[in-house]
Design brief:
alpha/beta, two-stranded parallel sheet, 3 helices, about 10% strand
Amino acid sequence: MRLVGEAVTMSSFKSAVTAIGVANWGKTENRHMLQTSYAGEDLIIDYKTGQNKKHECSLNPQHTHFFLVDDGKPHTAGCEIRYTIELQDIIQDMFAHEGRGLPKVCILLEGGESSIDCAVNAVRNKNPLLIVRATGR
């Protein structure tokens, strides 16, 4: 996700790009800063990142929006993959119903075990799949 955010920042289209991140609530660094009792209101929160603690990740500041998902298992990776796939499918269907195509490409960088779900989904749905070797794990 970091690379997607950086690409948006470097793009000449950055004011027209909506970069949506799907993050695991249980792994989000400083998640306590995001908790509020103001339901249904738009809020701007001064979210701070710092040194990532083990098993935690910062939200990427180059994304414009986030869906924070939770499976009830703190510090467990992977629940966000299913939601990311579902969100991508919903957005792609919205554009299709408007008569506009929206290409979808699955790019695997680093990749833990949960990335297999992304790759399988891409192949099943006949979406292009790009696997970048030697990018991390």
